[in-house]
């Protein structure tokens, strides 16, 4: 009989590539993870892992077992959801990992709505960058992730996850006031910014990927001179004439735009696609389902901001 807890350990090692990192994600010691994997190999009669440099990788048998593990773990999530639905009332805590503007745009309004509709449900918000919430979800540190599409993210057909699209928002060009394109009114062609110094997020931030894709589609690699994951800092640098930037439209809310020009851009790739995700099988849980509904409702009623006109020169 294969122990499902050991299947979770195998999945964590496959995700994190080292026993130490998997142990940290599972809140176990490395020796405990090694013992569970050894026991799983004994249960299956197969070697499941081999060393690969400083990490480990799955053997062919391990890959086969991992495919079944995802299905088994999803079914266990469904079983827990059905049992929870059978029990009386929906009272408890749901942890949601979301990036900062996702919290402001949909999670905070969802929490406010749930306070009236589901007073026994407590939502715990964890501020996590757009590329961090999905690993937190898969590791069991969150029940729901509000995430964005990014390079290296789990594929939309990943059997470990169930996704709920929330909203898509464009990026706008943020330009110094003395920039030749600052006085225009229509969309800025990304290609016209090819020779400029750029300000943007660090590699690994999903917004960095959006900027790269938009620029690559326009035929150039942006010359990233200044790096910050704080969009108020990005805007301040642009106001100082340090360069140009593409910034998610919602991130410009509450930011001092008096000394910059904000323009829409002509690239459909300059868009941040936001979705909510749960572990597969968990979506009907009586605590998780209303949170997903509230997030979707908040997204449907978004007051989508438009770019400010350029200040007069």
Output the keywords.
two-stranded antiparallel sheet; disordered C terminus; 39% helix; alpha/beta; seven-stranded mixed sheet; 313 residues; 11 strands
Overview of this protein structure:
The protein is of the alpha/beta class and 313 residues long. The protein has helices spanning 4-16, 19-26, 30-44, 60-86, 100-117, 133-138, 206-217, 231-239, 288-300, and strands at residues 49-52, 55-58, 92-98, 121-127, 144-148, 161-176, 197-200, 223-227, 245-248, 260-264, 271-279. The strands form three sheets. Strands 3, 4, 5, 6, 9, 10 and 11 form a seven-stranded mixed sheet that branches. Strand 1 and strand 2 (55-58) form a beta hairpin. The radius of gyration is 23 Å and the shape is globular.
């Amino acid at each position: 009989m294969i122990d499902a807890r050991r299947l979770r350990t195998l999945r964590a090692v496959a995700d994190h590539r080292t026993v130490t990192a998997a142990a940290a994600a599972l809140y176990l010691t490395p020796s405990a993870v090694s013992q569970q994997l050894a026991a799983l190999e004994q249960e299956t009669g197969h070697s499941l892992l081999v060393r690969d440099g400083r990490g480990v990788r799955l053997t062919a048998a391990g890959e086969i077992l991992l495919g079944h593990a995802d299905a088994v773990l999803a079914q266990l999530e469904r079983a827990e959801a059905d049992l929870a639905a059978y029990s009386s009332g929906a009272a408890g805590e749901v942890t949601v990992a979301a990036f900062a503007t996702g919290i402001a745009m949909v999670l905070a309004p969802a929490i406010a709505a749930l306070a009236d509709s589901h007073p026994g449900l407590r939502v715990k918000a964890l501020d996590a960058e757009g590329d961090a919430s999905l690993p937190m979800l898969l590791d069991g540190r969150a029940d729901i992730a509000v995430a964005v599409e990014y390079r290296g993210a789990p594929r939309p057909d990943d059997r470990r996850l169930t996704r709920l699209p929330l909203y898509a928002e464009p990026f706008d060009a943020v330009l110094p006031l003395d920039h030749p394109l600052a006085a225009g009114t229509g969309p800025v062609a990304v290609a016209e910014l090819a020779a400029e110094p750029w300000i943007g997020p660090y590699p690994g931030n999903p917004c960095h990927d959006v900027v790269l894709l938009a620029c690559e589609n326009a035929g150039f690699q942006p010359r990233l001179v200044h790096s910050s994951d704080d969009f108020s800092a990005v805007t301040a640098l642009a106001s100082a004439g340090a360069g140009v930037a593409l910034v998610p439209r919602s991130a410009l809310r509450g930011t001092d735009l008096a000394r910059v020009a904000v323009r829409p851009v002509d690239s459909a790739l300059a868009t941040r696609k936001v979705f909510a995700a749960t572990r597969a099988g968990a979506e009907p849980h009586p605590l998780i389902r209303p949170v997903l509904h509230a997030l979707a409702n908040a997204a449907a009623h978004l007051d989508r901001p438009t770019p400010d006109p350029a200040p007069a020169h």
